Amino acid sequence: xxxxxxxxxxxxxxxxxxxxxxxxxxxxxxxxxxxxxxxxxxxxxxxxxxxxxxxxxxxxxxxxxxxxxxxxxxxxxxxxxxxxxxxxxxxxxxxxxxxxxxxxxxxxxxxxxxxxxxxxxxxxxxxxxxxxxxxxxxxxxxxxxxxxxxxxxxxxxxxxxxxxxxxxxxxxxxxxxxxxxxxx
Length: 184
What we know:
The chain is mostly helical. The protein folds into two domains: 7-88, Winged helix-like DNA-binding domain superfamily/Winged helix DNA-binding domain (Arc Repressor Mutant, subunit A, Orthogonal Bundle), CATH 1.10.10; 99-182. Helices cover 66% and strands 7% of the residues. It contains eight helices and two strands. It has helices at residues 7-17, 22-32, 41-54, 77-88, 99-105, 112-142, 144-147, 152-182; strands at 57-62, 70-75. The chain has a two-stranded antiparallel ribbon. Helix 1 packs across helix 4 (77-88), helix 2 (22-32) crosses helix 3 and helix 6 (112-142) packs antiparallel against helix 8. The chain is elongated and about 65 Å long. The N and C termini lie far apart (45 Å).
């Protein structure tokens, strides 16, 4: 089975929450899903244009004096049907691409201290991410608008995945540092 480009579904998902401009979609994605799904402007705008041609979204252009026109996109009934159909489908497996593991695998001739630095940096990165996930969790569970949302339990499960993944990576880092220590 070939891999489907998921940008369309990410954008439909965002637009299922509220009509937005491409800029607003990017901004929303950066504060909500960017820890597990990243979209950039270079992908957002062409996909929005294609989805408009397919009848999955509509666009309303608003004009403001002295500013560029603003295109606001809304999901259509057809777009919502396609999103819901995709949400029901099984997940397509995609092997991970982990640069750190690639470098470790091919590093028997690299000084062990260099490898340990990389592992320590990875551990620190995930410690910071876990703190960020906890901050986000507090924010969305105390904010009046988000804590009453139907999707809140699902948003919290994605945060929990991030925290659990981070904790697993930190555990792996600690184990790897011990292994590397024996190679000195």
